UniProtKB/TrEMBL annotation:
Listed InterPro entries: Gal80p-like_C, Gfo/Idh/MocA-like_OxRdtase_N, Gfo/Idh/MocA_oxidrdct_glycsds, NAD(P)-bd_dom_sf
Keywords in alphabetical order: Oxidoreductase
Organism: Panaeolus cyanescens
UniProt-recorded name of the protein: Uncharacterized protein
Entry-linked Pfam families: Gal80p_C-like (PF22685), GFO_IDH_MocA (PF01408)
Annotated ranges, domain Gfo/Idh/MocA-like oxidoreductase N-terminal: 5-136
PANTHER family: BCDNA.GH03377
SUPFAM superfamilies: Glyceraldehyde-3-phosphate dehydrogenase-like, C-terminal domain, NAD(P)-binding Rossmann-fold domains
Coiled-coil regions listed: none
Signal sequence bounds: none
Residue stretches making up the Gal80p-like C-terminal domain: 146-295
Amino acid sequence: MPELIKVGFIGLSATGWGAQYNGPALLDPSLKDRLKLTAVSTTSPETAAASAKMYGEKAGNEVKAYHGSSARITADPDVDLVVVSVKTLLHKEVSIPVFETGLKKRVFLEWPIGRGMSETLDVANAAKKHGFTPIVGLQARCSGVVQKIKSLLDSGVIGRVISSRFIFVVPREARIWTPYANVDNGRRYSLEKKNGATPLMIAGGHQLDAFMFALGQFTSISASAAQIHPTLTLCNSTGTPTGETMASQFYDHYTFSGVLSSGVHATFILQMGVSSVPGRKTLDWVIEGDKGMIQALSETTFGGCINLASPNLYLNGEEVKVDGVKAGEWDAVGILVSQWAEVAKGSSGSCATIGDAIRLKEILEAVERSVDEGRTIKINA
């Protein structure tokens, strides 16, 4: 029998992202012999009690309620794995007390681990100082489609990989960031650049990690960017405008290219805020080899975000079916189930490490520097 890992989840509330996706994924029947939710921690006694009650009923076992310092849930002897999944502006504040307990627990941190590189390094240094090796929630690399792409590449079926392009679109119908921004459930914080939840860092970071997981890391970056939508229209989750607008604080279109550590020439394009129209691809990822090609395609609203939806996969024009994958559909829960399955494997799983996260953030910061300075940025191996 595999080891049963008892999970204490910081930030798993009764509403929001956790309730919709992380909770159902963690409690998926396929994981019941590997992961068991035993405790939750939120910001107040009331929300903690509500969350513990709801998830206890769903899990069929007692779930303890904690609030306040993250050290409290970490100290629970019935917690083996501490999950930190809170807003970016709280990542550092919540993560470091977990490490300062010195308790030998597994730790999972949600991407992007703080508002900027400085906070990410503070968290990483605290983890290292106290002997922790946290893993990071970059779940796209754990998805069935990305795992299959990597398997095909490793098999040599398309020969030597020469180049790759990754074009993804987050259309206006998604109501994320621009030009329409859903501000329900406290999401307004993501519209302020200082909070570190920008389109490039969140949407770009998740897709870029999967891209580099399959193909290798960028060693140079030449980037350009534009702000196509200077004004944001705030709305609720159904798309009804609140009557308020605000000036955009970020670029919404990026194009960058460079050479990967594998020698592959790569181009990466992020487009935000265009309309969904028939025939418009929200994802067009092509990998060219000297003996063949792999392509991942989607036309669905969130199809460009392979951490949330699974594209259709093709090898030399023939569709490749991936077991357990809902190709062409929104599949946030299914992809998170795959992530938690990899988490349960520990060091043998495919989850990103905090070192991977630092490297990814270095590359995203190189994109911003290239845009600002108008030059190619070299990235140290």
